[in-house]
Input
Amino acid sequence: MKVLCVERDFFALRHMKRVIPRIVPEAEVHYCRDPDKAKELAETEGCDVLLTGIDMGAARDEGVTLAEKVNRLNPHVNIIFVTVCEAREYANRIIPLRLSGYVRKPYEPSQLAEEFANRRYATG
Output
């Protein structure tokens, strides 16, 4: 399974780096803070699971835009939003993506583990 974690906030990304290997130790995980770099990684390395926020600071909907791009590359990508944003504001763009999960910050590792356990699409 290939996991791509995208988080602009340094501390939130550092937290993901501690949590993800405990949840899915078999996964190949890439971490980045730049959505453009994340799109490149999804193109070159592939992506089974995308973990990203909705609002990553530079643009209010930057995470949604990234998810849309990655979804076009792989329609069976499992998209899990890890965010402080309310999904209602972005519902018209998020619903067509057929999310695999949604976790509100701050989160417990068990919440993220639950989303991985209940992924929408099976991955290797």
Q: What stands out?
A: Helices lie at 10-23, 35-45, 62-73, 91-94, 109-117. The CA atoms of residues 55 and 62 lie 6 Å apart. The chain has five helices and five strands. The mean pLDDT is 91.
